[in-house]
Design a protein that fits this description.
By secondary structure, the protein is mainly alpha-helical. It is 46% helix and 9% strand. Helix 6 links the parallel strand 8 and strand 9. It is elongated and about 105 Å long.
């Protein structure tokens, strides 16, 4: 039975690396009809925050990564919060002490700091000097001054087979006698993860390659208990576009931020699946069912993956275009409410919103882009694109816009094709280029120079708004560009 776990620590917002690991775990479990477990590693009580836990749960739910065992769903291997398993860790740590694989240590923080500084000054690794290793202290580990340390072998090598990278070995002499149970009674990561993965019958551990140096320590703890270790899959690092480690300076890294930016969960799911895994062909757009069917460990790369935000936006745009107009409208509504474009004080007509979605669907890469490229459907522009003003708000444009107002006032039918016909008749009579008139009108009604067909915009916003916006632009030009002497 394939049993995998995603075991985040709720000390900060879940970032791309965490969630990519969860997604690979989920795909692997679903591909093999296995079990995907959520375990919360909340033993760092100083950095733990309920907000971080909520963000983890919300991020997984947003991506559709449902878990079979864990918080809020239960299971036969709980508790699934490490903070509720302290007695379990204590009992297993005592077993290691009894078997001679661990020992109590009562070295003070001051002594440990002194040792650390002395070793660093000598150019050595800041390891513990094993002062308590053979002292046979019998103190209770609940004593606030006492910890339990693992008795690392001093010679030889420890090796394991990584499913992606093959055999990896470590010199045991490089390992510190790591703490298993801290003085506050809480386990360290190295100990809790081994105990939990064994007791929860985890078959495969997927985690970032930065944990490779810890794998040797974990193998030795497994060996001390006489347990069979799970299979290890250390995933490649994720880099920013400049090929340095992905960080906040590259933009959003927390999964919750992408939802706020208008990235669709299906697009993010698809994008993350390809971040370090290859389907062995050029296919880039997959349904979830297709990814479940095709995902395997052999397709995971060992080289670092580059997080290309522009590629994500492109993919998101593809997903936007695959939606129905009604679906897109529903996805945009929360943003409209957030921007106070459509709320209780500013109700919007459903048919009006669908027209906007239909017009903008082919142009959007993210939902949040609507604030910059579609605001004019809801708000009269208060300023005009600077380059557009220089290029299109020429002195002659004042008269052309005034003529356009009269043309539109007399329009018998307010329909895209009819409006274009009326304007073309006008420019032919005036013997001027169509763009010389159409572009100032676009700038007047939208404030920007890009968007759907001008006449599609005019039909959507309606006759009254079109005329009032053009008249406002004329007044603005007369005041700011061509004031009367």
């Amino acid at each position: 039975m394939i049993r995998v776990r995603f075991a985040p620590s709720p000390t900060g917002l879940p970032h791309i690396g965490n969630i990519r690991t969860a997604l690979f775990d989920w795909l692997f479990a679903r591909h093999h009809d296995g079990v995907f477990i959520l375990r919360i590693e909340d033993t760092d009580r100083e950095r733990y925050t309920p907000e971080a836990l909520d963000a983890i749960v919300d991020g997984l739910k947003w991506l559709g990564l449902d878990w079979d065992e864990g918080p809020y769903v239960g299971g036969n291997f709980g508790p699934y919060f490490q903070s509720k398993r302290l007695e379990i860790y204590y009992e297993y740590a005592k077993k290691l002490v009894e078997r001679g694989f661990a020992y109590y240590c009562d070295c003070s923080p001051e002594r440990l700091q002194k040792i650390r500084q002395e070793r660093i000054a000598k150019g050595l690794d800041p390891m513990y000097d094993r002062h308590c290793r053979e002292r046979n202290i019998k103190s209770d580990p609940t004593d606030p001054k006492t910890v339990i340390r693992f008795k690392m072998p001093l010679t030889g090598k420890t090796c394991f087979d990584d499913e992606l990278r093959g055999k990896i070995c470590f010199d045991n002499s490089t390992f510190d006698d790591i703490v298993l149970i801290k003085s506050d009674g809480y386990p360290t990561y190295h100990f809790a993860v081994v105990v939990d993965d064994h007791l929860m019958e985890i078959s495969h551990i997927m985690r970032a390659e930065e944990w490779i140096p810890s794998a040797g320590k974990h193998i030795l703890i497994y060996d001390a208990f006489g347990w069979q270790p799970p299979k290890f899959v250390h995933l490649p690092m994720i880099l920013g576009a400049d090929r340095s480690k992905l960080s906040k300076r590259h933009g959003a890294t927390a999964i919750t931020e992408f939802e706020k930016q208008g990235i669709l969960s299906d697009a993010m799911f698809n994008f993350l699946a390809l971040l370090g895994w290859s389907p062995k062909d050029d296919t880039e757009i997959f349904t979830r069912a297709e990814l479940i069917e095709r995902f395997d460990l052999k397709g995971i790369n060992t080289s670092a993956s580059v997080f290309d935000f522009e590629k994500l936006k492109w993919m998101n745009g593809e997903y936007i275009r695959m939606m129905s107009v009604d679906e897109l409208t529903e996805k945009l509504k929360p943003f409209y409410r957030q921007w106070h474009w459509c709320d209780d004080e500013n109700p919007c007509d459903e048919s009006y919103l669908r027209k906007i979605s239909k017009a903008m669907q082919i142009r959007l890469k993210t939902l949040a882009e609507m604030k910059e490229v579609g605001f004019y459907y809801f708000r009269e522009p208060t300023e005009y694109d600077e380059k557009g003003v220089k290029k299109y708000f020429k002195p002659q444009a004042v008269q052309w816009l005034a003529d356009a107002v009269e043309i539109f006032k007399s329009a018998p039918v307010w329909q895209e094709e009819k409006l274009e016909d009326l304007l073309r008749e006008y420019v032919e009579k005036q013997k001027i280029g169509f763009g010389k008139v159409a572009n100032p009108i676009r700038l007047a009604v939208s404030g920007i120079m890009k968007g759907p067909s001008l006449f599609e915009i005019l039909e959507i916003i309606g006759k009254e708004k079109t005329i009032s916006r053009i008249e406002r632009a004329i007044k603005w030009m007369n005041k700011n560009l061509y004031p009367a002497d």
